[in-house]
# Entry
Amino acid sequence: MDFDYQLVINAYICIEIITHNLKKYTVMTRLLFFISMFWAAAIVNAQTSDFATMKAQLNSSSIPLVNLMVDESLLNKDTYVSASIEIADPQKRTENLETATYLCTVRYRGASSLAYDKKSFNLKLVDETGADLDLALFGIRAENSWILDAMTIDRARMRNRVCFDIWNDISKTPYETKYANRNGADGLHVELFLNGSYHGLYCLGDKVDRKLLGLKKAKVEGTTTTTRGILYKCNDWTSGSRLLSYDNADMNSATWNAWELQYPNDYADATTWTPLTQLIDFCSSQTTDASFAANFNQWFYIDNLADYFTFVNALGLRDTGWKNTFLSVPNITEGHRFLVSPWDMDASIGGDKDGTYVEDFAVITQFDNTAPFNRLRQQNTLSFNDLCKERWQTLSQTIFAPSNFNARIDAVVSSLTESGAWAREVEKWNNNPVELKSSLAEEAEYIKQWYAQNIDNLNEQWGLATGLHEVEGETSAANQYIFTLDGRRVGEIKDGYKYNKSLKKGIYIIGGKKINL
# Structure
C-alpha cells in the first residue's frame, strides 16, 4: 500500500491542534486517536476507484452510497474498532450535505449469520475525542448507534425493511416520545463500500432502543442504582420465551431464560430481571383466569397486542413471537405495563429464515401455546378475538390491502432497479448464500402473490368473504397513500386534495404511479 505521507502529516497537525486545545486528554488518548486517523487517512488514499467512480455518477435515481473505511483484519463481533464513513446522498438528507465524512467505531453483528461472507455491522458515530456523536443520518433521528443490515438470506433484500415500515404505520407507543411515538426501527437502502471497494446492498437504520421508546435512564446516586426503564429482547424458543415458566438461571447475567437485557445492560442482576419474572408469573397458570382478566391492563396494552397479533399474521412472520421481539417498560418504578416491539423480520412474506420459499400461510392459532395469547384467544378475554377481527377488517382494507402492499413493493423494486443497485448486488452476491434473480421484479411477483393468498387465507379464518380486497384495494387503498421511492409511506390523499403540501420536492409513488413533484 502506497501511503500519501503528506496527507498523514496534515492529519497529525489537525490532531495536535485539537489536543492542544483539549488539555484534559492524555498522551495515550492522543496517540490512539493519531493511530486511528493515520489508518483512515491511509485507507482513503489507497481506496479503489469503485466508490469514487460511483460518487461522481450520482443522479436522481441513485440510492445513497456509504464508504466504510476500516482495517478489515481487525473486524470482529465482540469489540468495536476505529473507522470512518463517507456518505454520498444526492437528496442531501444528512446535515443538508451531498457528501460528508464522520469518525466511527464498528464491529460485526449477528450470530449464525456471521458464517456468511456478506456480514452485517454495528456502527457508532464518534467525535474527534472518541465521545458518542448523535447525528440524524438521512434525517432518521439524532442517534450515535446504527446498523448496516446485510439482508443476506433474503432473496428480495427488502422484507425486514418493508415489514418495519408497515409496523410503523399501524403501531405507535401509547405514550408521548421525542420521535412521534414511533415503535419500530426506521431505515433505508444504501450501497456499501469497504475501503472504496463495492460490497453490496445494505439497509442502514436505527435500533429499537431506550431513546427511541422513551425509557427512563437508570438513576445513579452514589453507590445506589435505581432501575427505571427496562428493555428485554427474546433470542430463542423456550418456555421462558413463551412467558409460560422459567428456571433458576443466574440473574447476574445479560441473558436469562432466552431473554437478553438490552437496557440497562450495565446493571444485570435480580433487580433488573424481576419485572420479567413477575410478568411470567402473571401469565402462568398460577394466575387464575379471573385474576388474569381483572389485572391484564396493568401488564399489557391490549391494543398493542392486537396490532402485533394482526401484523404477524398479515406478513407471515415465521421466527417472531416472542423470539425476535422486544418487551419494554418506560419506568418500572411507576408501573409494569409492557409494550411490544418486533425485530428481525427477514423470515416473512413467503420467505423462511434460511432464505428458502415457503408454501404455507399464517394461521391465527399459531400463538395458542404462547402467553398471554393462549388465554386471550381461547377464552376471548377482554373480547380479544373481537378486537383482532375488527382490527383485521379495517387494516385488510387499508394498510394491509394487497394493492397498497404492492405499491410499497413496487416502489422498492423501482428504486433498486433504476439505480442499478440490484444488478450490482446480483453480480456481487448471487448464490452466496442464496440465489438472486436477475430481475427483482420477478422476485417481487412471488412476494405479492404469496401475500394476496395469505390475505385470502386469513379472511377465511376470520369468517370473512375473500376477494373483498380486490374491490376496495383498487378503488381506495392504493390511491390513498403516498410512498417514497424506497417504499416508505409519507402521506395520504385527503378531502380531494391530490398531493400533500408538506412533501418536499422529489419523486414519489402515488396511486401506483411514479410522480415528480
Summary: Residues 1-25, 43-48, 468-478 have pLDDT under 50 and may be disordered. The first strand starts at residue 65 and ends at 70. The first helix runs from residue 5 to 21.
